[in-house]
């Protein structure tokens, strides 16, 4: 009797959790690989000739947890500091939302009959994966502070460690709630009329019916239809959030200058770093969210070059007023106005170059970004005598 051939082993089937976790892990690794180059360049530029890169990383890690540990020694500030530490993790999840909950994944997942418990468990896993670098940084910072053992920390080390663990759990919970809210958001938007979400419809109607029905519907300019309405009504949420976050971050050095004028050169260098980072990030977000709107309006009598220039102007718009705010907060003693003007022009020019040039491969872009950052930091160091 002929022996039967053994059947081939069954193909391994990935579960929903494993598939989503693998996708998010690859996306996060690509994000860390791309932005890690910029962080490394910034660390080397800022610490050139003074301290090593390891010391800069350890110092930055300790500063991440220092407010919470200091508040543990002063009971009245513990709850606000713990809340701020938890919101730091929520901010990280908010910034990484395109990697944790992309639009394409959301549309595919809605077609699956997944119970709420499964999606919540999946959100917990991907949020924990996204917050893992922050948790590692906080653990390193806690170890550095405990190793130095300042007198004010010695009696409250246990309380500080517990507070850090509670803040980490709160960050995880808030991040999961954020993803759960994103899951519910499309259902609320689905109840609106379709034309309220289609920005291209606004532009088409504004050009086609303005002459036919001048009294029934006012004319809608294309800049409002294709730039402001997507930011206001949720068609470009990542771009809107990126602009708001950039404005807050770039406005923060001004009050710090008033409080610590001795750190003027360092804060100018930090502002240049923030400006280049914000310009690169918002440029990427607007390319992803606004360029498809421009493509949908190809049949309209609008010049594509004008649309692209308007998008670039939108990305660069926050920089001049915030740079003027920074210059107004600078102490006048020892200030060199000519160098300050060169610094301002360099920051604006480098940001414009970063936004107007087409996307390049990561190595070329990182080299260009490093050169521009070095120029801005060198000028920042010479603003004061």
Keywords:
385 residues; mainly alpha; 18 helices; 75% helix; 0% strand
Explain what the structure shows.
This protein is mostly helical and 385 residues long. It has 18 helices and no strands. It has helices spanning 16-46, 53-72, 78-95, 97-100, 103-109, 116-148, 157-190, 194-197, 199-208, 222-232, 237-251, 253-259, 264-289, 291-296, 304-316, 319-328, 337-356, 362-381. The N and C termini lie far apart (97 Å). Residues 186-200 and 205-216 have low confidence and may be disordered.
Instruction: List SSEs in N-to-C order.
Output: HHHHHHHHHHHHHHHHHH
Give the strand content.
Answer: under 5%
What does the main sheet amount to?
none
Provide mean pLDDT, rounded. 78
End-to-end distance, in Å?
97 Å
State the gist of this model.
By secondary structure, the protein is mainly α. It has 18 helices and no strands.
Helices and strands in order, then pairings?
Elements: H1 16-46, H2 53-72, H3 78-95, H4 97-100, H5 103-109, H6 116-148, H7 157-190, H8 194-197, H9 199-208, H10 222-232, H11 237-251, H12 253-259, H13 264-289, H14 291-296, H15 304-316, H16 319-328, H17 337-356, H18 362-381
Helix pairs in contact: 1-6, 1-18, 2-3, 2-6, 2-7, 3-7, 6-7, 9-10, 11-13, 13-15, 13-17, 13-18, 17-18
């Amino acid at each position: 009797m002929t022996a039967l051939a053994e059947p081939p082993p069954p193909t391994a089937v990935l579960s929903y959790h494993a598939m989503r976790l693998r996708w998010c892990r690859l996306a996060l690794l690509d994000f860390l690989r791309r932005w890690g180059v910029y962080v490394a360049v910034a660390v080397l530029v800022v610490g050139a000739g003074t301290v090593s890169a390891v010391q800069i990383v350890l110092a930055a890690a300790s500063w991440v947890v220092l407010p919470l540990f200091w508040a543990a020694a002063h009971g009245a500030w513990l709850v606000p500091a713990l809340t701020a530490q938890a919101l730091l993790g929520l901010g990280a999840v908010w910034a990484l939302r395109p990697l944790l909950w992309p639009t394409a994944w959301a549309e595919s997942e809605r077609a699956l009959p997944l119970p709420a418990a499964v999606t919540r468990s999946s959100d917990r896993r991907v949020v924990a994966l996204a917050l893992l670098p922050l948790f590692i940084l906080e653990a390193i910072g806690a170890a550095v502070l405990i190793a130095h053992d300042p007198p004010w920390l010695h009696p409250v080390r246990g309380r500080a460690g517990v507070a850090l663990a509670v803040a980490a759990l709160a960050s995880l919970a808030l991040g999961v709630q954020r993803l759960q809210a994103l899951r519910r958001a499309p259902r609320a938007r689905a109840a609106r009329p379709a034309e309220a979400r289609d920005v291209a419809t606004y532009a088409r109607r504004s050009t086609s019916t303005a002459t036919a029905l001048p009294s029934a519907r006012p004319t809608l300019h294309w800049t409002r239809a294709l730039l402001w309405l997507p930011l206001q009504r949720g068609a470009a949420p990542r771009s809107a959030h990126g602009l708001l976050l950039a404005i807050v971050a770039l406005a923060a050095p001004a009050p710090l200058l008033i409080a610590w004028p001795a750190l003027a050169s360092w804060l100018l260098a930090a502002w240049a770093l923030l400006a280049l980072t914000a310009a690169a990030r918002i440029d990427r977000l607007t390319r992803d969210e606004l360029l498809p709107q421009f493509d949908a309006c190809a049949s309209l009598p609008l010049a594509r070059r004008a649309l692209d220039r308007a998008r670039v102007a939108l990305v660069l718009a926050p920089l001049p007023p915030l740079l003027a705010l920074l210059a107004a907060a600078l102490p006048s003693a020892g200030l060199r106005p000519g160098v300050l003007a060169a610094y301002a022009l360099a920051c604006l020019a480098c940001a414009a170059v970063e936004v107007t040039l087409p996307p390049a491969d990561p190595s070329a872009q990182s080299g260009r970004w490093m050169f521009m950052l070095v120029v801005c930091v060198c000028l920042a160091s010479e603003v004061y005598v």
